[in-house]
Amino acid sequence: MPPTCEPSPTRRYVRLRREAGLRAKSAEQPELALRESWSSCHVTAADGETVAMGRVLGDGGWYFVVADMATAPGHQRRGLGRAVLDHLLADIRLRAPADAYVTLTADAAGRRLYEQAGFTAFTSDQTGMQIVL
Fold first, then answer.
1. Domain 10-116: which topology?
2. Which 8-state DSSP code applies to residue 47?
3. pTM of the model
């Protein structure tokens, strides 16, 4: 199942977020999120359901954020998350200027995947922070 570059339809995006344990969103948020993504990728199973996905937010010049990386529980440990991540990073390398700065927030389950792709933790004097409004 190679990743495709087309945006995942909203209903599939919402379903996969829920199945993968990501926080639920309002009815308006998924459509805006997908439309405003700098890049996105999803893997579709033979039955047409989206089983893995990810997207990139970015300004197109310097800053890029990998977001919404998710794989359906029944499809995990098959390399799909890595295929999606590799596709997203290749798209950044292809379309963004050199020295693009790519960040993400990794949960414990995804940390190994990101480290294998070359991501490193911030230095000890930097702290990831968040606010949910």
1. Aminopeptidase (3.40.630)
2. T
3. 0.85
